[in-house]
Amino acid sequence: MEEGTSKSPSNCAGTDPGDADPFQWDTREDCQVRQILDRVADKWSLLVIALLENRRLRFTELRREIDGVSQRMLTVTLRSLERDGLVKRTVHPVVPPRVEYELTPLGGTLHATIRSLVTWTEAHQDEIAVAREAYDRRAAEAV
C-alpha cells in the first residue's frame, strides 16, 4: 500500500478534500460506493426491490414473478439485499418453514429512486429505440 493511502475502503475520494466531487465515485473495486451501486443497480436486485413495494412475498412467489431468474441467483440476490439492510427475511416457525421477504425502511427509500428510473425509462424508450436502430444500421453498413 502506498504511503498516505487510507486503509479504509469507505474512503474512496482523492487525498485532497478540495478534489472531492460528491457526484463522482471511485472506480476501484474496493470502493464501498461502487460496491453498493453494483448491488442495487443489478437487474435482479432492481426487480426484487420493485416487487416488494408495500408487500411481503415468499421465495416461490418472487421466483414466479421474475422471469428468467434461477433459484440460485434469486437466493444470492436476496441474501445480498438482506446483508445490505434493504430486505428483511422472516422465517415463520411452521412445518414446512414459511419464509417471507419484505423491504426494510431503508429499502423503501431506494424503491422511490428506482421508480424515478423506471419513469425516466418509460418517457425515453422511443428515443432509445430510434437511437438503437440508427446504431444498428451504421454497424451493419460498416461490415
Characterization of this structure:
This is HxlR family transcriptional regulator. Keywords: DNA-binding, Transcription, Transcription regulation. The protein has five helices and three strands, in the order H-H-E-H-H-E-E-H. The longest helix is centred in the C-terminal third of the chain and has 38 residues. The N terminus is likely disordered. It has a three-stranded antiparallel β-sheet. The protein has a single domain, classed as Arc Repressor Mutant, subunit A. The termini are far apart. Helices cover 53% and strands 10% of the residues. With 143 residues, it is mainly alpha-helical.
CATH architecture grouping: Orthogonal Bundle
CATH class: Mainly Alpha
What helical percentage do the residues reach?
Answer: 40-55%
- Structural category: mainly alpha
Q: Work out the count of structural domains.
A: 1
Please state the CA-atom Rg, rounded to the nearest Å: 20 Å
Give the CA-based shape: elongated
Q: Provide a count of the helices.
A: 5
- Strand proportion: 5-15%
In whole angstroms, how far apart are the ends?
Answer: 47 Å
